[in-house]
Each structure stands twice: as C-alpha cells, then as structure tokens.
Amino acid sequence: MNNWKDTLNMLRPFYRGLPIIAVIMIVAVLTMSKYLNYVTPMYESVSKIKLADVKEGAASATMYKDFDVFATTNKIGAEVEVVKSPVVIKKALSNLNIQTTIFRIGDFRNTELYDQSPLRIMTDIKDQKLFDKAFAVTVKNNSILDITTPNAEKIEGKINEVIHAKGVDILIVFNDSLISRKPGLLINDNYQFIVHSENKLIDEIRETIDVMAADKEVPIIRIAYTSAVPQKSADIVNQISEAYINDYISEKYKTADTTVDFLNKELHNYNTKLASSENEIEDYKHKEGIVDIPQEIDATLKKVGDLKKQLANVKMSLASIDSLNNYVQRGKDNFLDLAPNFEAYNDLLSTEIVKKMKTLQSEKRDLLLKYTPENEKVQVVDQKLKDMDDYLLEGIKNSKADLQIKYDELDLAIKNAESAFASMPSKQKNMVILDRNFGLNEDIYKFLHEKRTDAEITRAANISFHRILAAGEVPTTPVSPNVTLLKAVAGFLGFLGGIFLIYLVHFIKGRVNDLNSIQRSSDTPVLAAIPFLSKEKGRELFFDKTAIEIEIKKWLSPGSVIVCSSFDKNEGKRFVAVSLAKSIENLGKKVLLVDVDSTIGEAIPNEVNMVSLPASGLKWKQPDVWKNLVSKWKEDNEVIVIKNAPLKKESSSMLAMASGTLNLFLLDSRNTRKSRIEEADLLKEDLQIPNMQFLLNRSGYTPTLFTQAFDITKRIFKKK
Q1: 528: helix, coil or strand?
Q2: pLDDT (tens digit, 9 = 90+) per residue, 225-253?
Q3: Tens digits of residue pLDDT in 359-369
Q4: Model's pTM, two decimal places?
Q5: Does domain 510-703 have CATH number 3.40.50.300?
Q6: DSSP state of 131
Q7: Which residues make up the CATH 3.40.50.300 domain(s) of the chain?
Q8: What is the dihedral of CA 192, 197, 198, 201, to 10 degrees?
Q9: What region does 667 belong to: left with phi over 0, alpha with psi -120 to 50, or beta?
Q10: Cα dist. 232→99, 113, 376, 600 in Å?
C-alpha cells in the first residue's frame, strides 16, 4: 500500500504539470518547424541495373562458354566497385554540366540553381588554387555586374564580355532559353559560383553516391544519389548507369576483337596446313597407286586422330596460359593495358582477379595525380595489387601444372597408339597417316572457323548483357529532412524536457509540499493541509471545519492558548491566525487575537478582539511578564490565538510556544525544506513544547510551473 502511495506522490508533480508539458511540446514543435524553413531539403534518385547472366544473350552462347569472352559469372561486389570507380564517374561527368555550380544567395541559405540559373558562367582558370573556391557575383542590371574572386579581388564587368581577373578569365551570359520560358524570373540578384576541379568533383560524387546490391540472391545493383536539386540527382544516377553500361560494352567488345584477331591468325596457319596435307595425300596416292585402307588401320588412326585433336586443344590452352603468365609478369605496373584476349583462357577466378586489378590500377592512377608514390593511400593500393598479383600467378602456376599433366597423358597415349600402328603395312599405313593428318587439320580448322564466326556475330551484335531495369526519376519528395520524424522527435524531446523541468522545479523549490513528505520526515502529527484557496468563501469553509475539528479534540476548552508559529515571517501566520480566530469566534467562543510583533495591522474581522504588542518593547519579553499577560488574557477570554513572531528572528517567540496548549507550527509548501522539519522536531524536544501540530500552508501555492519558477528566481535574487 505504501509503495502505491509513494508512486502516486512521485507522479503528482507530473499530473500537475501536464499543461506545462503540453505548452513546451507545442513550443518545441513550432521551433522545429521554424528551423526546418532554413534547412536545405535533399532529394534522392535511384537507378537499378540488372547484371549479366551466363544464360542470357545471343544465340552464340556456346562460344562464351568455351572462351569466356562474355560469360563470366558476375561478382556483384566487384561490379559495385566498378560503378564507383573513378573511371566510370569520369565518363559520366563528361556528359554532365556540373563542373560549375551556381547558387542564388538568400537571407538564410543559398539555393543551388543547376539548370534553373538565369546565368551561364564559363571560366578559364589558370591558377589551380582558384578551383573549389567561391566566386561572388552581383547582377546590377541587364549589362553590369560585379565579381568578387576568392582572392578578394573586386571587378566590375559586363554581361557577354570576358572579364579578366588574377588567375582566371570569366564569361557570363544570360540563359536566354530559361528566361524566355520564365518571364518573371529574378535576374538582378546576388549569386555565388564554384568551379570544381575534376578530382575533387569525382571524390565528392564517390562519397555521396550509394551503390549496393539490391538483393544478395539477385544480380541487381541499386545506384542512388542525393542532391539539393531533384533534376541533378536524377541526371547523375542516369549518367553513371549509362557510363557503366558503355564501359562494360567497350571492355567486352574489345575482348571480342582481340579474340577474332587471335582466331584469324590460327585459321591462317591451319588453312596452310590443311592445303599441304591435301597435296601430300594426292601425291602419295598417285605415286603408290593406293585405292582402299583396311578397317583395322582406319580405326587405329581414328583413335590417334582423336587423341591428337585433344592434344591440340590442350596445347592451345597451355599457350594461352603461358602468354597470360608472361603478360602478367610484364604488366605489374600497367595492368590497365593488359590485353583482354586472355579471357579466352577459361579460368573464371583469373579473369575476375584481372578485372579487380584493373580497377585498383585505375584508382592508383587517380591517386598519383594528387599524391606521391610514397603516400599511405597509394601504398595501400600497391599492397592490394601485389597480393592479387601473387595470388593470380599462383593460380596460373597450378592451372598450368594440371594442363601439363593432361598434355603428358595425351602424348603418351598417342605414342602407344602410333606404336601399334607401326606394325601395319607401310604403304597403307603411310596413306592412313596422311589421311588422318588431313582430317585432324580439317577438324581444327572447322572448330576455329566456327568460333571466329561466333565472335564476329557477337562483335557485330552490339548487345549488352547488363541492362538498366529502372532509370532514375526526378524525385518530388525530399528524403531529408524528414519533417514528420523531426517534428515527432521535437515533440518527444519537449515532452521529456517538460518532465525534467517540472521535476527540477519540484526538487529545487520547498520539498515539503504534501502531507506524505512531512509524515515521512517527522513523528509530529499534521493537523491539516491548507489547500489552494482562491476565494474568500473557500477560506472560511476550510477554517470553520478546522475549528470544529479542534473543538472535537477538546483543544478549545476555556483558557486554551493556540499559538501560530514558524521559522520565517512568510509562512502565513497572519493569515492562519486571523482566519482561525474568526472561525473559533463563529463557534460562540470569546476569542482574543494576540499579535506579538505588530504585523497584522487593521485588516481583521470587527468581531475579533485583538491585542498588538509593541515590537520594540522588551518588558513583555521577560518570562514573568509574559506569564502574567497570558493569565490576564485568560480572565476575559475563553480562547487566545497568538500570532507568534518568527523563530529565527525573535527568541522571545519561544515564550509564546511554551505557554500554548495547542502549538500550530506552519510549514509553507513553497519555502519549507525538509531540514526545517527536523529543526522543528529538535525544538519540540528541547523546549518540551506541548501539543505541537504541523499545519501545511498551501493557500498561496498556485500549482503552475510559471509561479514556482518566478518564486524561485525571486528568492535567488533576494539572496544576492
């Protein structure tokens, strides 16, 4: 039960302060709304790209399977890095007019104009220090303008005329097409423009752009860009998407070109061999008069031919991997120049690594434009390249070893078959050998011709397996600031702040503000708690009730002395003494009101008799004199109500308390701290004060935060 009471007592300030909390929340929300007027809204545009699938594309997909020209399984993580690479961003920037950013200067914030600028600004910067710095422009009229450079150089110039400044030439013209579409467009105004360096612009876009896999299971890349200008955000994501697709096409068709060249060379060689084999057969037949070949010899040589065809394929693979190994060894410092024909080697791991190494080399090249080779950032990229290079060489070494084993096995099988063939008749044997050599060369020639045809078809098809699923649209709703969320947060913080403020005031002000706080701190009983009484009628009813309660407790017998005391002068002794005296008078008792320090004045009911003791008089402050005075008062009155002097100022006030049959010790809810209760208890024990009762005075306590804060502030300044 006590726990519930404690909880309710703790919540009481909260319930009292709900109106204040509501006001603070409203103020917080309104303040946030005002703040949002000065915050630049940001808009996000999103583009989605579907990555290539080995099962998609042209009908010549069998060629991709053999040569890996296009059929490389896409690693989404690697493609994300490619999209964000400086190479792709740079290609996108070539189609965007964002090197110069123009702002309209406002009172509270500058607004980026992008394609809505009434001015077109062209610059020729000779001093590199002027890049990425703000130029100020003031258009005075249709012909005159002022320019302030980052060097604080002020120049007056004209529209459509080149303005020469230190380290830069500037030409400013009107955007006639926009002005004609918007006749009321403000032109004469203050502007600011920044000419971005290419590297800085690329870095800013790379930092702002968000590229990620839409789903781990689905090869889709999401490209998002956020800008203060909706059209700009859409233009950037779309141009980056197009640049990525074009880069992909360029790389893949470069590979196809190289593959076609490689196959043409091989076809030329085997065409020569095929013609030579055909001539040898005809010459040998004519010379020896051979017409037919036994079946056994034919089967043996067929086996030899098949084995030699397999050996030729393995030999081609070994040649490719040797070439790749040699190129890697030579290309440690120029991976961007690696010939893409090595993708003809069907090793997906190696081709993916080469792709990553190209990206890293591109990044290194961009870094070297800004940093020395000894820079930490460059060294990090170099270390990554070295690790991948070592890993690639190790993979090539292992793959070559596997191919060499296969080659040796095929070579041994051919030798065994040829040994069996050696025992056959020489004329027919030689004829079969010549015939099978011709067939082998013919098969290889057909194989190479087929692959060249597929490569040429693919090269001419202009097909990209990567495709844009969704182009970036011009956003209409800002992604930040989130107005609803921020207002909700502001309201919530206002709610918490209101609670904090209420309880802060609650604990700063007098802590003795309810009966429970007194009862927890003292064994002295509490007669009553005077509520907040805004009307005279309410006061009368409360004190009439209190007088009846005192009567019932037999504390109003003839000769009773009721003393109203407190530590300070502002606890309400005058109000209590006067009101209580009137209420006792209403019970039919003859009451004498004694004002020991002459502070009551004349504002008392006419029916109440009052005696004011001189504040400066010392005679009545003597114990014997005081005792005689009290005895004399009792002779003519049934009840004596004494309005005592403050205990902390007048030691004589203890005389009055000692003579009282009922001592009402006033505790003001606004001013009295817990320590005062302890002091009152000590005083009661030391002086053996009879029948002491606490009276909690809340009559002047208006339960509003503003009143409390005002009272606290007033007390603080009084102390100072």
Answers
A1: strand
A2: 999 999 999 999 999 999 998 887 776 66
A3: 777 777 777 77
A4: 0.52
A5: yes
A6: T
A7: 510-703
A8: -50
A9: beta
A10: 12, 10, 34, 80
